Amino acid sequence: MTATEEEIPTLVNPAMEEAKGVWGEERVSYPVSASDIRKWAIASYWPEKPPRIFWDEEYAKTTTWAGITAPTDFNPFAWPIDRPVRAEGGSSQPGTRGMNGGQVETFGVVMRAGDVITARTRLKGWNERETRLGLTLFTETENEWRNQNGEHVKTRISTGIRY
Fold first, then answer.
1. CA distance linking residue 75 with residue 32, whole number of Å
2. What superfamily in CATH does domain 25-76+98-162 come from?
């Protein structure tokens, strides 16, 4: 163990302790349009033709949903006008290196043209332990989407790994 590792008994900081379980500021999407859904489906299924439920209004009216629905991977926040500034560069200090540990999504109601989606995020929790990489922190971030009627659209639990 190096002197630097001995100085860091935990990667959990006071800001994390304070933020645990607290929902952050909500983001609200622009209204979803049928054109947004169609373009997303075309891009997602390219070069194949997307399922008709995503672009053919007449066909979609005959389905359970009685209209066009969005693919489950549709993201109404994909093209923001204002984008958050990302920190550049990196560090080799313990706790500053990281990787994506994966995600699990749970789906509710489908998104449709006219929907306005509200998203909120929170630090759900963490697990810290020694691994081959040294002291490693596994964090779970929960992102929840609801439509304008308050109905659950999607929840994503993302795992981040810092070491």
1. 9
2. Hotdog Thioesterase (3.10.129.10)
